[in-house]
Design goal:
Keywords: Ubiquinone. The protein is mainly beta. It has 1 helix and 7 strands, in the order ββαβββββ. The strands form 2 sheets. The protein has a 5-stranded mixed sheet, covered by helices on one side. A two-stranded antiparallel ribbon has the order 4-6. Strand 1 and strand 2 (18-20) form a beta hairpin.
Length: 90
């Protein structure tokens, strides 16, 4: 049995929240595993194609993105949740 905490990821387009397992590398990977289509290109925070609006909760970046990110937005490819979160996919 694992003691790793699992945060919930709620999307505006889904009725049920997803589990973000602590070992998952990013929110993008979690969404892909749930068969949710997300635009992306680089997977490293360079292009900004995977932007999403963070409606609620806190996240941290695996590495600081080089792409421009507006206030209230995150890049799914290099982000992990610190709390339960709510997102709007752009």
């Amino acid at each position: 049995m694992s003691d790793k905490h699992c945060h919930k990821v709620t999307l505006n387009s889904q009725s049920e929240p997803l589990d973000f397992a602590a070992q998952s590398p990013s929110l993008l990977d979690t969404l892909e595993q749930a068969n949710i289509e997300v635009a992306y290109q680089c997977r490293e925070g360079f292009c900004g194609a995977c932007r999403a609006k963070l409606v609620q909760g806190e996240v941290c970046y695996n590495q600081e993105p080089l792409a421009f990110v507006r206030d209230g937005e995150i890049l799914l490819c290099c982000t992990k949740p610190l709390t339960n979160i709510k997102l709007t996919l752009l």
